[in-house]
Amino acid sequence: MPTLTVNGKKVTVGEDAVILDxxxxxxxxxxxxxxxxxxxxxxxxxxxxxxxxxxxxxxxWFKMVTACNHPVxxxxxxxxxSERVVETRRVVLDLLLARCPDTALIQRLAAExxxxxxxxxxxxxxxxxxxxxxxxxVCDHIGVSAIASVNRGFGREIAxxxxxxxxxxIGCLACAEVCPTQCIxxxxxxxxxxxxxxxxxxxxxxxxxxxxxxxxxxxHFARRSGVRPGYFATSETSKRRAMAAxxxxxxxxx
Amino acid sequence: MRIESIAQFAxxxxxxxxxxxxxxxxxxxCCGTGCLASGSKKVAEAFAAEVAKRELDASVGxxxxxxxxxxxxxxxxLVALLPSGILxxxxxxxxxxxxxxxxxxxxxxxxxxxxxxxxxGQRIAAYTEIPFYKHQTRVAMRNIGRIDPTDILDAIVEGAxxxxxxxxxxxxxxxxxxxxxxxGQRGRGGAGFSTSRKWRSCRRAPGDRxxxxxxGDEGDPGAFKDRSxxxxxxHSVLEGMVIGAWAVGAHEGYIYVRDEYPLAVVHLTIAxxxxxxxxxxxxxxxxxxxxxxxxxxRGGGAFVCGESxxxxxxxxxxxxxxxxxxxxxxxxxxxDLPTVLNNVETWAGIGAxxxxxxxWFASMGTDRSKGTKAFSLVGKVKNTGLIELPMxxxxxxxxxxxxxxxxxxxxxxxxxxxxxxxxCVPESLLDLPVxxxxxxxxxxxxxxxxMIVMDDRTCMVDVARYFLKFLTEESCGKCVPxxxxxxxxxxxxxxxxxxxGRKDDIAKIERLARGMQLGSLCELGKSAPNPVxxxxxxxxxxxxxxxxxxxxxxxxxxxxxAYEIIPDLCDGCHACFKACPVDAITGTIKELHVIHHxxxxxxxxxxxxxxxxxxxxxxxxxxxxxxx
Amino acid sequence: xxxxxxxxxxKAEAIxxxxxxxxxxxxxxxxxxxxxxxxxxxxxxxxxxxxxGVPLAHVFSVATFYKAFALNPQGDTIIKxxxxxxxxxxxxxxxxxxxxxxxxxxxxxxxxxxxxxIKTVNxxxxxxxxxxxxxxxxxxxxxxxxxxxxxxxxxxxxxEN
Lengths: 254, 628, 161
Fold this sequence. Notes:
The complex is a heterotrimer. Helix content of chain A is 28%, strand content 18%. Chain A is α+β, with helices and mostly antiparallel strands. In chain A, the strands form 3 sheets. A 5-stranded mixed beta sheet of chain A has the order 2-1-5-3-4, with helices on both faces. Chain A has a 4-stranded antiparallel beta sheet with strand order 8-9-10-11. In chain A, helix 2 (83-99) packs antiparallel against helix 3. The radius of gyration of chain A is 23 Å and the shape is globular. Chain B is of the alpha/beta class. Helix content of chain B is 40%, strand content 14%. Chain B is built from 25 helices and 19 strands. Chain B is globular. The chains are: A alpha+beta, B alpha/beta, C alpha+beta.
């Protein structure tokens, strides 16, 4: 269980911890964009950079690394807001503000770092997508992989194959929900859901009539778990009622 | 015939030697990509046809060989002769008969085909006397141009697999690593990391399965030494990899060849088949019980795949996205298994290091950069081509003694080294001994070994912009500083070369450069600002001229440069008229010609062809006309 | 996808038969497909995804990431102008301009009659012969804009320049 310091504060964390874990333990806030608990760290946004010193190095030799994926080590010293770290974060946000000038999250983060207007040329095709990759990463994580990054460099974007309705998408909305800027649109109406230009039939809870889950997603879960698809079409309402019924049968003892 | 013991290998060497001695006259026609582009294939075919027709192979042991790149591409097609040691340049099929009769059979030199030294107009016939070759010390490229890359026996005669035989029969894997450590060899791909340290790390990594990889992605524009090695001496690469695999305990290897090098893939494939047939690769190599085989993987056309972790993703069938290096690839590399990745030139040197000993290698070079290094010397230099020299040779020697000086004897301005991660070294540093540390201190880096020579007609702002444009197309796009930063830097530079620079541009560039250096995920992004920063460091006045005066001192940025013909110097030769792609020049032969500014696109074609230097450039802002 | 011509999948099947049916084979398979069809037809990509067990989205990601692949039919002859550093300073830009003037299309575009596609490519490693142009399989070193018609094969020329 390594012990290290974050901004001078000592913390002890698990063997497999990363610097971000240590920072949280120490109560120190490190801004992130492409990090999400439960998903493998990616290290793409570079917002979580910190200065780090390890045993055996010269006293004043620090290395700038991303907190989300750099492993901790015994005796490590982490500085989360040195001048060059803050300046690097500013450059990252300044660049993102040029790319996504109208995106509330970026405007807020940039303002928190003292930037109200970008120093750079504004993207003529302003977008809300910050290319954090969370949507594709969660989609890979659940074993669907319906969307992926397309092209490289500045023209990189997130898209389904051939920019058409993705054949593998199960309409689970994980991508839309994990997106930090809510830039993946979807709609629901009359027992049908639409996302990525694809329409999904929803399964209804037979007890309440609510549209609960897409048929495709239920079938995906069924394939992976061996449980029949209908099981997954239980609405929250039904679950609460079932739980209430259980509580009603319990006797309080003593 | 599979070699199953060292004794059998020695017998094979003897067999190869005997065959070589029976070849009393060797005609070696360079068929590297450069000479092929000049038509050397027809020359080789003409020689082969003539020798066959006159049955000279049987009667006088005359053999025609096609070889890999001699390096002196500009003078191609090149033909080298043994045992006379004569090199003929710019050979045409029509010269073939004469060469056979006069030189090969008659022993006489044909002056018109020999190299003419631009310095003094002297003709030099002997290969080893030509300044371009005289100053070289070839180790990794030692046999290119001497052997037929598709013939393993040719390679064996020149020492191929002797190092492997020694390693397998006399040395333990640890001893092999120790020998490489004594040699002090550092990676020849650009980073210059100690080869032995890398191998040792991998050897110590736990697990049974590991890989050795060869990085043949050579993405630096201007560098082609790896191409020449893979095309010209593929067995050197294979031998190095077998030795390395033995040292780290790997049984599988890959050679990653960039898509743009089809001939390298062909020659490597042939070499692999031959090596397997002779038991020098595959199962039970040389009867040692060691199994190891190699597969070739073609790149998909992405400079970023020269980065080791991106290369491994590409081998896995994925997009070439680098990942953070907190976990070393010697622990978790290809398929998350221990992996050694080395450059082509690095592998090509290993056989010689084991055969001749690490001490021999370390006897060349400087204190921290041992051995020799291959460079591709290109650009505005007279003798362009591929050279190999001991580390520590100065830039001046390279550019002026070997390179023969600047094309057209124009003033030297800078030499760009290290590709898009490197920088420009100015005249004041011409006496810099070339090694890893010295180049880095000067704001550049060794990189792959590309050396692009620039003269006074090269605009350094444009050079920086060129590299930015290149990198914007090659960035994988994963991280913000590189993806967005390169694009924004390019926007700024687009304005600078167009004369729309702003007062705060330099400060903006410097701030963004620092953010990219510190914040980028991989070396592509981190080193992307280098060409910008190094040109700012040594040629700041050019930037300022672009911004404040709207002028391009080199006279090449088109929006800032106008051309005119100086009346007193024009002799009406009409060359400019013919060269102009947009018919912006009027004039009849023997009369004064005139450039029309409204039509002129400032491409400089006329300037390049004018034989009397009668065309001058001047800042476009001085044009007080209705145009621009 | 529906605008693409129907392709003969037999060629794709033959290619797939040469490689182990797994993800690491993807790029090699796509290169063979590119060579066989002169581009990557979407029907073939679907087949490849299925055969190698790779999600279609990842196949498309790889197809659009690497410069070697084209998703639209290319011209019969691909003209590649090297834009490596040595070629750049020795006038590659002028070659591109001359091509644009001669063929009426820009880099990455194909002529209407599908005869030519212009591409600017990274360093091809023939730097000593800069600027270099490759027309089909043929390398032209020390290329000059004035000789463009010869390079494009509208006149007969031999290997010399």
